[in-house]
Amino acid sequence: MKLATFEKTTPIGAVRRIGVVHGDQIIDLNFAYALYLTEQNDPRPYEMAGLIVPPDMIRFFEGGTASKAAATTVVAWVVERLADKVTITGARGETIVHALDEVKLLAPVPEPTNVFATMNSDRHMLNGLEKFGLGLPKAWHDTPAVYRSTNSGVAGSEDPILWPSYTEQLDYELECGIYIGKRGMNIPVERASEYIAAYTIYNDVSARDVLKKEISLYTGPAKGKCFANSNLMGPWAVTPDEVDPSNMRMVARINGEVWSEGNLNDIHWSFPQLIAHISKDEMLRPGDFISGGCIAFGSGLELDRWIQPGDVVELEIEGIGVLRNRVERRRGLDGVE
Q: How does pLDDT run across 123-139, given as a tens digit for each residue?
């Protein structure tokens, strides 16, 4: 399934929901399941739908196999009705199926509790460090290079890449990431795949000149990686049964021109290995995000080519889709909410 979080404009404002993408449409899972239960003569269809298929992605992940099974059942039910040209409207008049161009897609999990970023490709790491006059650390192959990024900078496909006021070298990174589907601590690598809820595309936008200074101070990435809309995810999240992480082609296009091309199998530490490492004496929770790291030649730094305001950055991963964002300069003064 292609799971998405979307916003729909209503007379009372924007409403956030989750759904499954089917062709050029998106099926509202919660409303669809309430209608399905209504037709099954369930006495409390909306209450049960809220418990089993809630309209929030983290809560949906928390529902585990029961929520996924219910979603699979109701999507098949809706698709069959669509094929038969049956009108689908909720018992209370709610819209069940939207055209994709009528809604705004958000990041699959708009507000993850944790964002774990990684540096995980030998070639990408070497390419980048050589630009900074450095070499691979001795511990590189002994332990995964993981750091926490900002969850307040998460944005989705079609959201702007906001050029920070303090950088002259902004860059993209072509990455794949996963969402955790259930709680776990000290997860053995042999069972870690069970904790993967879905895969998505990740653009780890980076201020390279700032990052270079931070590295020289022996500090982890901070303002070189953490700013508004620096963690771009989407356009949706695909469940593990629909992808093959051992062989997923990845492409980055700038204004339609291919700049980067590679495969997810370039990463050194697998997602199960990353999960096992990060969960050591630390609880992972549904909705937590873990990146697989930038693949070799998956950034402008390695090519000495730099994105500019007005550029359209498209990251595509086989089996998932295309994450598309335009680079924009900030306009006006920022306030405090």
A: 999 998 888 888 888 89
